[in-house]
Amino acid sequence: MAAKSKSAQYYASNPEARKKKAAYDTKYGKTAKRRKYRSALNKANRKAGTYGNGDGKDMSHTKSGRLVKESASKNRARNGHNGKSTKK
Length: 88
Fold this sequence. Notes:
- This protein has a domain at 28-79 and 84-88.
- It is 50% helix and 11% strand.
- It has helices at residues 6-13, 15-29, 32-47, 72-76, and strands at 57-61, 67-71.
- Strands 1-2 form a two-stranded antiparallel sheet.
- The model has no long low-confidence stretch (mean pLDDT 86).
């Protein structure tokens, strides 16, 4: 099993900070912009036949803005270390 990242270690040892982050994340996810983004990906996922079928695939944005199938783990981990993007 991989070691925890620095931020994961920080939040594990600072419960107040973790609560504050969880509250922010909830608020951010509820914004109109994020709902629209999420619904567009879900719609594309359903159209591609990968929504809820257990294949481990997601729809992922490319630099050109197209949507392509990609493994969920790679897609969701793309923010990179220190915020450096590894976008394809």
